[in-house]
Amino acid sequence: MMADNTKIATSQNGDAATDANGNGTMEQALATAHDELAAVTAERDELATQLAAQASALGEANTELATARDELDVLRAERDRLTAAVATAEQSVAAAPVESPATPRDCGPLADNAVLTLDDLRAAIGAADDVQVVFSDGQQEILTLQPLRITGAAWVNTVPGLKLAVPGLLILPTEQVEIAGYALFLDGKQAAWSPRPDVLRIPAGQQSDISNDVVFPG
Length: 218
Fold this sequence. Notes:
- The protein has 218 residues and is of the alpha+beta class.
- The protein has helices at residues 2-92, 118-127; strands at 94-97, 131-136, 148-151, 155-157, 162-164, 170-171, 177-186, 189-202, 208-209, 215-216.
């Protein structure tokens, strides 16, 4: 009987030890799981913060992109407007021959104190009702070459002076002429003189391009 009691006691003590060890292992596992959950939660929160920051940055980038697109649309509209204005101005430019006067007008170099600055000359052209370029032998108008009435945005500032910019400006004299320069007449009065570096001799019936020849220094 005594031996049996000893076995029973030993068995009971073993079960108690097993329960204690089992409980300890479970608590340790729960603690580990809790730590892992906390780590995952912290990582999730950090990722959420990063995602929120990226979303905010993306929103700002989208706003900036939209603003840039609006500005680009404005610039494109301005470009189109200017392109249309230039096209209209180019179409309106003309150098049309008009009837020569009955007697030649005196025209040639002006006195130094009568020479206008480029700005003043541009202003005078803009204010004039009638703008003509007259062919001159250096002293008088060449009647066999009709004066050219200039209209539109035909003038360009260059280093030498105010240039008449009419593409394909051709003249065809009916008899030989000798052009020493060009006089600019505004409302019937000479306002500027464009001397040639040498006399341009053109035989009768020969066409000549003077597109780059008429420049009024200021």
